[in-house]
What we know:
By secondary structure, the protein is α/β, with parallel strands linked by helices. Helices cover 32% and strands 25% of the residues.
Amino acid sequence: MTSSFDxxxxxxxxxxxxxxIRASQLGLSVACVEKRDTMKLGxxxxxxxxxxxxxxxxxxxxxxxxxxxxxxxxxxxxxLEVDLKQMLKQKxxxxxxxxxxxxxxxxKNKITSYFGWGSIPEKGKVAVAKDDGSTETISAKNIIIxxxxxxxxxxxxEFDEKVIISSTGALDLKKIPEHLVVVGGGVIGLExxxxxxxxxxxxxxxxxxxxxxxGMDADVAKQFMRILKKQGMDFMLGTKVxxxxxxGGKATITVEPSAGxxxxxxxxxxxxxxxxxxxxxxxxxxxxxxxxVDKRGFIEVDKHFRTGVEGIYAIGDCIPGPMLAHxxxxxxxxxxxxxxxxxxxxxxxxxxxxxxxxxxxxxxxQTEEQLKEAGIAYKVGKFPFGANSRAKTNHQTDGxxxxxxxxxxxxxxxxxxxxxxxxxxxxxxxxxxxxxGASEDIARTCHAHPTRSxxxxxxxxxxxxxxxxx
Length: 470
Ligand code: FAD
Ligand code: NAI
């Protein structure tokens, strides 16, 4: 007998598992198909992405603080050392705990899990190819493709995950490399580069463009690079990698100026390729169904996440937009609600982005460069953490908050921050923007003292020129 469901989701990441849960909450019968060898739900995010990277960032940050800032606080430590095995274990424990949590949520919501490769042989059917060689076909009134993304390699260079590594290898190095070369000054390169830098590696970031984190507000990106340099990270901007030779556990990386010029080589124990991710839609059956993908392989959908084929939707990293877990989650809720006949939608303008370095970087809405390009008249309010009492008390004064508001209406258009814990602070800015709020709404809201959130308030006051504490 063929099993039959209202909704079958292909992919058990933040897109897939949240869609499954929300659809089930709305009374639909739901199954989720996941191909991961470990049979763990949670996708890239929980298994080899957000969670393990944050576990290593947290642990390495603790070590770095103990090494560099505890003494000034009057805390002396003797015999401080890194126990890499334990550091990796606590990372694996975090993954184990959280992926297990999705199993619990699936049981609680009566969602059926299938482990195997999901594909769509025809409308209304999902085939699950299992490890034992068998294939089970299930019927689905609605199918959600949430198959995510995978790391991009440099042309002609393959990951061995030991010397030439993707983020997955960089989350599990068994030895601290003496020299780690990072190709790509984006989010992965800077987060995982920070981890290994703090643990003692020399880290060189090779970035094709003449700046790091393209797309990020330029003020913030500039300050970010200054701080990372102070932490000992080296940067080769405007530089491209033309070859990598890996022999005897070492890599020789050939680089030259992006615009052309003399080549030189770098020697490294590992080279992390972090030049972006590509949508993963291999062998799902898109071609046979006539589902369109764009030039970069992202599935094309309308604003209701419908592919051109009736009853087949797509969400998350495999469709265009920021490749972020919380973006996938937003789309998951929206698509489940749309399938259940409700008006689901996603406001892409209020999706925050956070880089979990120390200090953190957090942004929401439009950058100053985007506003200029769009010809939108805006006002700026800025406040440095150097003038924030909590930041000063804790000796963590790097960074600032910048609020961009419409020059006429005062509506908040973007908020960009760099500083300790701003990844939490950005939620306030997102909420104000979601309500269509003005900078004055932030400026006239009482913020607890002493907190870093006061810096956001002072920056908002600055939009109308009445910052009081700097
Ligand atoms: P995925 O999480 O990739 O899940 C897709 C799932 O589908 C996978 O489990 C895959 O095995 C499965 N699958 C694929 N094809 C099939 C098939 N045919 N049949 C069955 N199953 C299939 N984002 C953040 O917001 N914050 C962060 O801090 C953050 N940190 C990151 C750190 C790293 C190192 C990386 C690599 C990514 C990070 N991301 C972060 C990005 C985040 O992980 C992704 O945006 C998010 O996981 C996308 O969710 P998704 O459900 O679309 O896809
Ligand atoms: P990215 O798009 O953030 O950065 C890639 C960088 O590599 C860019 O600066 C680009 O100019 C550069 N680049 C591209 N080709 C190059 C080349 N040939 N040589 C040198 N530099 C080159 O991609 P990244 O860091 O791989 O991350 C992938 C995705 O994962 C991102 O879209 C991000 O959203 C997500 N992610 C999110 C995190 C977070 O939210 N904290 C953490 C980690 C990943």
